Amino acid sequence: MFDGRGFDAAEHLVDDWQEGFERRAAQARELATRMAGLSAVGRSPDGLIEVTVGRSGELTGIRLDEETRRQPTATTEREILAAVTAARATLAEKAREAVDGTLGADSETGRAILAGYEAGHDGGRDAGHDGGRDAGHDGGRDAGHDGGRDAGHDGGRDAGHDDGRRHR
For residue 74, which of 7, 132, 5, 35 has the smallest C-alpha distance? Predict the structure, then answer.
């Protein structure tokens, strides 16, 4: 055990371990640089709407062609969601390229990072999409209109419950 070979092997093991940490740290820095600048553009199928999403999939820009004024708002809503879905799909592909070029898409860390992007692009079924019935959708009324009621009043119902029954 103390014949000298064990110490050399241990020293070699520590050197390899340190090199591995340094290599992974350099890969992480490179990935952070690549990911910091990520954004993606998506267009609606009819080409009238273009959106931009930032590196986290958040909406950072929207362009509506004047022709959108001539179509029903429900159509515009669907087209906006389609454009956001397309942009997020493009963003996920760009993230995959960045991860694959640094950590490797098949590495444990790479898979974990990409899982977040894939969760954000799941065919429009992510947490932020509910078929146009999200909290900001008010059936065509403007967001500030509450029928003369204050914003916190819900007719005696709690905010998350909509079965019409009063709760004590």
Answer: 132
